Amino acid sequence: MEAIVATPLTNGRVHDSQGSWIDLETAAKEYGFTSCLLSQYRKQGCWALGGRKVLARKVLTWARGGAGDGGDCGMVLPESDLQRVVAARQEEVTPPRGWLTAGQAYSSFGFTKDALSHWRSEGCVHLGGRKLSAKSAG
Q1: What is the pLDDT tens value at each position of the chain, 138 positions in all?
Q2: Are 129 and 113 contacting, i.e. CB atoms less than 8 angstroms apart?
Q3: Are 74 and 58 in contact (CB under 8 A)?
Q4: Cα torsion through 65, 70, 75, 79, rounded to 10
Q5: Residues 102, 66: contact at Cβ < 8 Å?
Q6: Residue 71 sits in the same domain as residue 136
Q7: What secondary structure letter does DSSP report for 97?
Q8: I need a surface site. Which of 82, 115, 121, 132 has the fewest CB within 10 A?
Q9: Are both 45 and 109 inside the same structural domain?
Q10: CA dihedral over 20, 83, 59, 12, signed as positive or negative
Q11: Does residue 51 share a domain with residue 25?
Q12: 22 vs 5: CA distance, rounded Å
């Protein structure tokens, strides 16, 4: 995580020479990211960014008083990274013949991504305990 940005947040955003940065709450509201997923992208990298980790900075959320009095800090992420991830999510994915994307499984059968993930790692009672097969469409 990079050093604290001196400019305080305004409506969940701060701007500097590198662009617009947004806090976790704004990322959730505007782009639908959970803090858990953003933490994963920061620590382990993101497929939509070619495996690169999402940058993060600490930023002053509000100042208590005069100079040197401190304040509270929060984390912000580059909005451009989040926009790239959203754009990649929205690209049309054509799965191999006989397979469904997670979105198609939800639309057709109501299975959530969490349920599919659980069945993939722990097995599915509807399949006699067998683990659900999965592969990358891209």
Answers
A1: 555 455 556 778 888 888 899 988 899 999 888 888 899 899 998 888 888 999 988 877 655 444 555 556 788 899 999 999 888 877 766 777 888 888 788 888 888 888 998 999 999 988 899 999 887 655
A2: no
A3: yes
A4: 50
A5: no
A6: no
A7: T
A8: 121
A9: no
A10: positive
A11: yes
A12: 12
What DSSP line would sit under 61-96, residue for residue?
EEE-SSTTS-EEEEEEEEHHHHHHHHHHHHS---PP
What gap in Å lies between CA 23 and CA 34, rounded to an integer?
Answer: 12
DSSP string for 3-52: EEESSPPBTTEEEETTEEEEEHHHHHHHH---HHHHHHHHHH--GGGTTP
Encoded tokens for 8? 């305080």
d(CA 12, CA 24): 8
